[in-house]
Specification:
Elements lengths: L2 H11 L11 E5 L2 E4 L4 E4 L2 H4 L8 H13 L10 H14 L3 E5 L2 H18 L6 E5 L8 H6 L3 H4 L9 E4 L4 H7 L4 E6 L15 H12 L2 E5 L23 E4 L10 E5 L1 H4 L15 H16 L2 H22 L4 E7 L2 E6 L4 H9 L2 E2 L1 E3 L3 E4 L7 H17 L1
Parallel strand pairs: 3-13, 5-6, 5-7, 7-8, 8-9
Antiparallel strand pairs: 1-2, 2-3, 4-10, 9-10, 11-12, 12-15, 14-15
Helix pairs in contact: 3-11, 4-11, 12-14
The structure holds pyridoxal-5'-phosphate.
């Protein structure tokens, strides 16, 4: 079947929820993916911050194959070594105590919301309100899309669950005013991804932590996009010295095998009793073995340090492009390899031109080009990306 036939088949049967490019992806190696016609793309999107160890990393492929040959799945009614290992790793890395493994980011956030509400109830507090930030993104389930303070994702799905309210990101005053005796948790991305790579101001996250401490609200940090080494530390919140009560992760955790997790302090996690939460697939040995391999590769290949160095290099190269094209670029921002380039115009056609020239990026919040490449990239890959962008911007 050629690309045209595959696209026609998919268009006929798959739900029309994605605005797709007319390209069929076939395979990948390192930071490159290839389409069915053999065209090579430098992948600076990485499945939207997922393929942290690149494509077809032998360590990850080997771990998945070995696990698949032994035990792909078993019920959570039984223990597995792979799940226990991953739980210990995530607890130690996050500094939190208990872990629950899910299949996606949205599910991790759903679990975090349920846990926060149960915690308040268990303390006898009549608190259900979750406050989240405008331009944030937390997922597509009903509760997480409600926590996602962007009307475009909510429209048409009303009535939305009750108990959610919103404040502008980076505005401590607004947050202080919004918090009340009803507030059970504040839920934020430390760096907003879908909202346009919005970086917290100095002192913002520490200020949020303080508001939580004084009001008794829990702090839920959504590290689904910013976690797993992407910003140069395992979790973005570690740059700001802020520890949440509940943290959620997903995306890069298993390098592309579907997974998510939430971690919590003992005090909070302890309110969940057998039967309060669960998942058929969540934490299955295949996904856990993949995540264990990814964590191992991040550590042994020094990928946090690499994300930090390559991020600084890329930010400086992009600053060069900003100086060259001041009428097109208004801001370059990011931390590690979570980078946004804000344009003076919509970025959709620029993404398409970049793709034509052999690289993958995307545009978020309408006018921010987003770069979230695999953490294994080298300077030559950054140079290749910059050269393509330079060509595309020159032609705009
Ligand atoms: N939270 C953040 C910060 C995200 O970026 C995303 C996905 O883009 C999600 C939650 C939802 O994750 P998933 O698509 O795995 O449900």
């Amino acid at each position: 079947m050629d690309a045209k036939q595959i696209i026609a088949r998919d268009n006929k049967y798959y739900l029309h929820v994605y605005a797709r490019y007319p390209v069929v992806m076939s395979h990948g190696e390192g930071p490159y993916v290839y389409d069915s016609g053999g065209k090579k793309y430098l992948d600076f999107l990485a499945g939207i911050a997922v393929n942290v160890v690149g494509h077809a990393h032998p360590g990850l492929v080997g771990a998945i194959a070995e696990q698949a040959s032994r035990l792909i799945h078993c019920s959570n009614l039984y223990y597995t070594a792979e799940q226990a290992e991953l739980a210990e790793s995530l607890a130690k890395l996050s500094g939190l105590d208990r872990v629950f493994i899910t299949n996606s980011g949205a599910e991790a956030n759903e679990g975090a919301i349920k846990l926060a509400r149960k915690y308040a109830k268990t303390l006898g507090r009549d608190r259900v309100q979750i406050i989240s930030a405008e331009q944030g993104f937390h997922g597509r389930t009903l509760a997480t899309v409600t926590a996602t303070a962007q009307p475009k994702y909510q429209h048409g799905f009303e009535p939305l669950p009750q108990g959610f309210s919103y404040v502008p990101f980076n505005d401590l005053m607004a947050l202080r005013q919004a918090v009340s005796g009803q507030t059970c948790a504040i839920m934020l991305e430390p760096i907003q991804g879908e909202g346009g790579i919005n970086i917290p101001d100095d002192g913002y996250l520490a200020g949020v932590r303080e508001i939580c401490d004084t009001s008794g609200a829990l702090l839920i940090l959504d590290e689904i996009q910013s976690g797993m080494g992407r910003t140069g530390k395992m979790f973005a919140s570690q740059h700001y010295g802020v520890k949440p009560d509940i943290m959620t992760v997903a995306k890069g955790l298993a390098g592309g095998v579907p997974i998510g997790a939430f971690m919590a302090t003992e005090k909070v996690a302890g309110v969940f009793q057998p039967g309060d939460h669960g998942s058929t697939f969540g934490g299955n040995p295949l996904a856990c073995a993949a995540a264990n391999a990814v964590l191992d590769i991040i550590a042994t290949e020094g990928l946090e340090a690499n994300a930090c160095q390559m991020g600084e290099y890329m930010l400086s190269e992009l600053a060069g492009l900003k100086a060259k094209y001041p009428s097109l670029i208004t801001e370059v921002r990011g931390l590690g390899l979570m980078i946004g380039l804000k344009l003076t115009r919509p970025g959709k056609d620029i993404v398409a031109s970049v793709m034509e020239r052999g690289a993958l990026i995307n545009c978020t919040a309408g006018d921010v080009l987003r770069f979230v490449p695999p953490l294994i990239i080298k300077r030559r890959h950054v140079d290749e990306m910059i050269a393509i962008l330079d060509e595309v911007l020159a032609a705009v």
